[in-house]
Specification:
single chain; 169 residues; mainly alpha; 0% strand; rod-shaped
Length: 169
Amino acid sequence: MLNENIKAIRKSRGLSQQELAVKINVVRQTVSKWEQGLSVPDSDLLIALSEALETPVSTLLGETVTESKADEVKALSEKLEVINLQFARRKALRRATVHWLLIVVCAGILAVTAVLAMVNSPYLGWDYSAPETAVMGVAIHAFEWAFVRLAPLALIAALVGVFLTRKKA
């Protein structure tokens, strides 16, 4: 009965035999012998044991103590901690991916702007008399018209996104 109570209470407190032995200044084998019922602690050690396990001596000597659900709760909390870490890593990876994607969008907008500035709007000097090139000129003109109006808004939105997704120190 004493041996079962020591083991059940020790486990419910989440202590190993070694940790309990250190708390009461004995070797681990002594705790093991107590739990196997091969020996019993003397009165001084019984008091130290009750203090280490935060349990009254009467409980240690009394009826069989059922092992509490602390082991199950501890295992569940460890699993939840692992899941939370996985979610945090996934969130950080997603944030970094979005951050770099927005940086690429900013660079792309700036590159297209630079190309359009260097070619100096070719649709203004386009020959619209030839039907084959007229369609191409209209397409280029439509692209430049839309780009000039939408690119600043897209650039501002992407820059705000880069700022909001940056890694916080």
